[in-house]
Amino acid sequence: QNTTTTMSLVEGIAQWIVQTYKDNEKRLYSDEGEFDEKNDAKRGYEDLSLAVGFLDHATQAAFQASQAGADEETVIAALLHDIGWLQDKPSDGDKSLLTSADENVWLAKHDVIGGKVLRSYGFSDRLSKLVEGHVQAKRYLTYKEPGYYENLSAGSKFTLKHQGGIMSEKEALAFEQDSDFDNFCQIRRWDEGAKIIGWDVPMIDTYEESMSMCLWKALWKDRRDYSANSFVGDEQVEMLARNGFVVIPNFITCAERCVLKKLVVDLPAKCVRNFTDTPDLCKYGTREFLRDGRMAQTVALLAQKRNQILLHERIGKFEGRRNTTGNKDEGEDQSVSCPHCYATQHNVNNSPKKTKSGDVMVCFLAIGDFGEGQEIKLFNNRAESDNAVEGSQEWQSVSLKGGDAVFMLDSTVHMLNISDSSPPLLTAAYGSKDDLGEKARVLYKK
């Protein structure tokens, strides 16, 4: 990969983070300082106050990390350790991030929220864990160091109750075994020391290039919430067997989507097939993602078969044959016959056979932002399979937004209906090396 070129693709995310921090420069700041302990118990974490503003607090922490000679990821983790503060409160129906019956204290777990957000942006699992670790370090130090708890502010004592409280001996021993244990504790120390009024430290813009570098290094790599094992469980396998397809939301990170969107812009044609064989189109690491990485691993888990190989892939504006069923007028949406139908229609030797599990799986990944009303329609042919629900042969709408992926068995989903106005897609077909003959593999490649 060309480092400079690829970094330029993700720098927009770093710039957005920088601007977000600037927009929240005075967040948490109050000329009155912290309230007394009695009032602390009546308000949420979001109302706590700092002696300095949110932006100064972040840059002071990062400067201390830099001065201490910390590695790049640790410096950026120190800078972004409180990014969870900036996230909107979950909707009333989403209780996954709430830490108590009182919704006002949900941000006491800003470490967990921050780690989740950073992974979604595209930062590495390690950097995200460093952000999560600074609160765990607070819990550890209150257990380990005499007098540490007494020196906490009233607000910090209040949030500690909703962050797990003081660590137990067993928890502390496990925490000490982490390879980044020292860095967790250091980030906590830098957090505590980042409340100095009038301290002149480098501006947040100084760290923009380092953030871009961290994002680039983490491209296409597995992390919590972004791995085949985190996407696929019994529910997804059963859904695929029952419906012939399954949708997995947020399959790629923001950084990875930026790279794919740029790749589409660089295409020499509207749509390019077998682009992983083209060196100029693989300089961003997409070959590994498709052939051996997250996409291929997810297919293997869904199909419950190993030795899955990439048969065919293309990227760009999806162009297929017009609907030949006669149910739609000429000039409307395009319908694309699936590879399985094409193979059987042309009597290819060793072509995939219709089975309950499906020999070939086709994946569509939404690269752009799907607006309201944008959808892919699948012509489901489950009525022809052994375990189909009677009368299920019909068009089914599947709504996707940018970053979502749909995985389908081509032995059950025979046709796609895609609007001409839909954003670009990445599509790939996989099959088991043990199930497909050489001629079938060649056909898919064509």
At a glance:
With 446 residues, the protein is an alpha+beta fold. It has helices at residues 3-23, 37-40, 54-67, 72-79, 110-121, 125-144, 154-160, 169-176, 181-192, 208-217, 228-231, 234-243, 254-265, 286-291, 294-303, 339-345, 438-445; strands at residues 245-248, 271-273, 308-316, 334-337, 360-366, 375-380, 394-399, 405-409, 413-418, 425-432. The protein has 17 helices and 10 strands.
Helical residues, percent: 25-40%
Biggest sheet, spatial arrangement of strands: 1-8-5-10-3-2
- SSE-based structural type: alpha+beta
Proportion of residues in β-strands:
5-15%
Keywords:
single chain; 446 residues; alpha+beta; six-stranded antiparallel beta sheet; four-stranded antiparallel beta sheet; 17 helices; 39% helix; elongated
Q: How would you characterize the overall build of this protein?
A:
It is a single chain. The protein has 446 residues and is α+β, with helices and mostly antiparallel strands. 39% of the residues lie in helices and 13% in strands. It is elongated, with a radius of gyration of 26 Å. A 6-stranded antiparallel sheet has the order 1-8-5-10-3-2. A 4-stranded antiparallel sheet has the order 4-9-6-7. About 15% of the residues have low confidence.
